[in-house]
Amino acid sequence: MAIGLGAKLARLLLLTFNLIFWLSGIGLVGTGIWLLVDSTKAIVFAIVQVEGQLPMIKIGAEFRCFLSCSSWVIAIGCFVILVGFLGCCGAMHENRCMLVTYFAVILVILLAELVGGILVVIYKNDLESKLQENMQRNLRGNYGVGGPVNQAVTDGFDYAQYTFACCGVAGPIDYNTSVWIAEKGAALKYQVPISCCIAKGVSYRDIKPENKEACESPDVDIWKGDRNEKGCYEEVKRVITSANGILIGVGVGIAVLELLGMLFAICLCRNIDYDI
């Protein structure tokens, strides 16, 4: 087969952009792994999960956490690497079949990205509402209750409450209807977990309230100033969505590369002549 000067230029550009595309896939895999192993996100994710709704994995020896979007980011990154490899092979071997396949796959990816973006925009409020609903459900039914998954929820809330100086989901009053207050809190004469108290300590596992008696008082005039007043929902949402900017930037960059890759693949296809 023979190709003209224009096709050679298209092939060079296609190889270049597919190399960048391939590196972007590696970047996505790296971002996904970072999201998956980040200890802060792993702990906080436990309090928004509902077992049975999402696949579960073991994180460390202490608790389980749901497979978040990080797993999908890793999978998409691997797929992008494979697609980039397909485009490079098609360009290097001047194979029209591989180039057409590459074009079709990229087109499907672009359409999927478009649909996914539209769905996220449409259901953004529903997703946030579900996040808060899951947090409330876990606090009321799973916090302070035995079992590995419930321990993950307990650790997650204790970590969030200690780290972000918050209490409950919307506020301390959330614990009034929890299993914890009925089974343990009332017996200990606690109004809220110790992690809700303004405290000193090196971690959420070693909390030393500045004034435990005042913090656990049922009288708001007494506990005010010794107990965290704001809810944890906004802080948890911030942690979970903190990587959105990175993901959006990478996604837009990949979309641009996909469009350019499709353009150069078509140009190369049109200029490939098969010797008979």
UniProtKB/TrEMBL annotation:
SUPFAM superfamilies: Tetraspanin (SSF48652). The keyword Protein biosynthesis does not apply. GO terms for cellular component: plasma membrane. It is a multi-pass membrane protein. Its main location: membrane. Keywords: Membrane, Transmembrane, Transmembrane helix. PANTHER family: TETRASPANIN. This is Tetraspanin. It comes from Hypsibius exemplaris.
